[in-house]
Amino acid sequence: MRSIAFAVAGALIFTAAALRSARTGRAPARQAQLAKDDQLARPLDYRQWVYLSSGLGMEYSASSYGPQLFTNVFVAPAAYRQFLATGKWPDGTMFVLEEREGLNKGSINKAGHYQGDLEGLSASVKDASRFPGGWAYFKFANGASNATPMPRPACWECHNAHGAVDNTFVQFYPTLKPVARKFGAYDERKTAAP
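Structure (tokenized):
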């Protein structure tokens, strides 16, 4: 009987904390699991996070690197809720970028493209106390359970120069652009083609 009472009390405390964080817009806990050496644990449940957008064959330089891939972007739910409430990404925000092969022949498909196997997985984490410039970017090797931050020029400089909102490419997330604009957080100057 005592264990049932503890379980019920624990569930009530958890529910109250979740409701409080939803009302205040504060992120309850960090989604990113970072070790002392800045190793990021691969998030296993990211496909249950908030889906933001997909791209097909998006390149950031003039040269093409091979077959067109689909990119799917997910963000941790607590960070998404805070963004909706404030137009800002809280410390602890984590994005996952999933790359999948783009296919056009298969089953009954006669035109268009669809997504295939996972080709790559990357993440970005906002942690101002840990990373210079506030953000770090990670690429998981095939099947790896953790990743180290990429060298700063690899991603940070492009995100900083072209991310419409706080080093993030909100310009490619159609449901978040109006939110960022409403809060005055959207930087149009960073969305112009170079």
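The chain is about 25% helix and 25% strand. Residues 2-24 form the longest helix (23 residues).
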